[in-house]
Specification:
This protein has 198 residues and is an all-alpha fold. It is 94% helix and 0% strand. Helix 1 packs across helix 2.
């Protein structure tokens, strides 16, 4: 019986040892599982932080890229606006300059027209004056010719009268002086007047 009790005790001790070992294993498995869970949670946390960092860095990169592109677009728009405003202002200045040039041209044309008109009027007046002088000269030449014809006719009559007077009245010897011609001229006028009446 002592062997039985010893065997029972040994069996019980083995059982206790087995239980302890089983418990130890369970505890180890539980510790391993807990450590795995903790490590997994830690790893997941790290992974999430890494993902968040990547996400935030990607977001930051995207925002930086968008900012750069928007700045570039704004700069392009500013450059385009500057070009457009420059061209518009140059077009506006061009219109003003062309308008001023047209006004100056119109004024110059008007001044030239006035000067040309004045010059033409002077030339016309000069031509009129020359024509008038020519007509007056022609008329005076015509009158002088007519007068010379009349004087020649009168002289002829005076000569005739003088020869008649010298023949009829020898006491009136008529010399060919100016006074004598004047006297005879008056005489011939009265003679021709009385001759024309008869």
């Amino acid at each position: 019986m002592a062997t039985d009790a010893l065997e029972i005790e040994q069996a019980r001790q083995k059982e206790v040892l087995r239980e302890r070992e089983l418990m130890k294993r369970e505890q180890e498995q539980a510790a391993v599982a807990l450590q795995a869970k903790l490590r997994g949670a830690k790893q997941r946390r790290r992974h999430k932080q890494t993902l968040d960092k990547r996400k935030t860095s990607a977001t930051a990169l995207q925002s930086q890229w968008r900012l750069k592109m928007s700045k570039k677009k704004v700069d392009q728009m500013k450059a385009a606006a500057t070009i457009i405003s420059t061209r518009l202002s140059s077009v506006h200045r061009g219109k003003i300059v062309r308008k001023e040039l047209d006004e100056k041209k119109a004024a110059a044309v008007k001044v030239q027209a006035l000067a040309k008109g004045r010059r033409e009027r002077r030339q016309v007046e000069k031509v009129k004056k020359e024509k008038t002088e020519a007509v007056v000269k022609l008329q005076s030449l015509g009158r002088a010719k007519k007068e010379r014809k009349q004087v020649a006719k009168i002289k002829k009559e005076v000569r005739y009268v003088c020869s008649f007077v010298n023949l009829q009245y020898p006491c009136f010897l008529v010399s060919k002086t100016y006074d004598c011609y004047y006297f005879l001229l008056l005489f011939s006028y009265s003679y021709s007047y009385s001759y024309s009446l008869s």
